[in-house]
């Protein structure tokens, strides 16, 4: 049984499987305290296929949602409503996790300190 994720990473993408691949590849090292939600249009079959390949090779919880390709904010809302993590962050297709160790430190601090919200900048 999967544990409840601490962080939900939501990626909105549309017909950009090259950049999405970099994002998904960087997430495979994370554990089950992270979930990844991908929001793509139904017609983006290349991204759906790519996502399915990564899902079978990762320890994180992964879900895919579909939007009507009516804009990034609508897609972000779809991802946010489906998130199960205590905290939500949004990554663009092409954003990559550089340090799994830093993510584990962040998760530990979030679980310990339980802040209401967190703002951080990627590099």
Q: Gist?
A:
Helix content is 38%, strand content 22%.
For this entry, give a set of tags.
123 residues; alpha/beta; 4-stranded parallel beta sheet; 4 helices
β-strand amount: 15-25%
Helix content: 25-40%
Mean pLDDT: 91
Structural class: alpha/beta
Number of helices: 4
Rg from Cα: 14 Å
The global form is globular
Give the low-confidence spans: none
Q: Largest sheet, order of strands side by side?
A: 3-2-1-4
Largest beta sheet, briefly?
A: 4 strands, parallel
Helices and strands, in N-to-C order? EHEHEHEH
Number of strands: 4
Q: Could you tell me how far the N terminus lies from the C terminus, measured between alpha carbons in angstroms?
A: 34 Å
Descriptive notes:
The protein has 4 helices and 4 strands, in the order βαβαβαβα. The protein is an alpha/beta fold and 123 residues long. The chain has a 4-stranded parallel sheet, with helices on both faces. β2, α2 (45-55) and β3 (61-67) form a beta-alpha-beta unit. α1 (17-27) packs parallel to α2 (45-55).
Reconstruct the topology from this structure.
Layout: E1 7-12, H1 17-27, E2 34-41, H2 45-55, E3 61-67, H3 72-82, E4 87-92, H4 100-113
Parallel strand pairs: 1-2, 1-4, 2-3
């Amino acid at each position: 049984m999967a544990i409840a994720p601490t962080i939900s990473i939501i990626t909105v993408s549309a017909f950009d499987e090259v950049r999405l691949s970099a994002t998904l590849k960087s997430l495979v090292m994370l554990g089950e305290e992270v979930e990844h939600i991908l929001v793509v249009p139904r017609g983006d079959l290349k991204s759906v296929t790519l996502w399915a390949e990564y899902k079978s090779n990762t320890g994180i919880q992964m879900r895919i949602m579909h939007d009507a390709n009516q804009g990034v904010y609508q897609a972000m809302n779809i991802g946010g409503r489906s998130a199960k993590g205590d905290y939500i962050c949004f990554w663009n297709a092409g954003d990559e996790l550089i340090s799994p160790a830093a993510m584990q430190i962040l998760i530990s601090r979030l679980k310990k300190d339980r802040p209401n919200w967190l703002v951080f900048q990627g590099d």
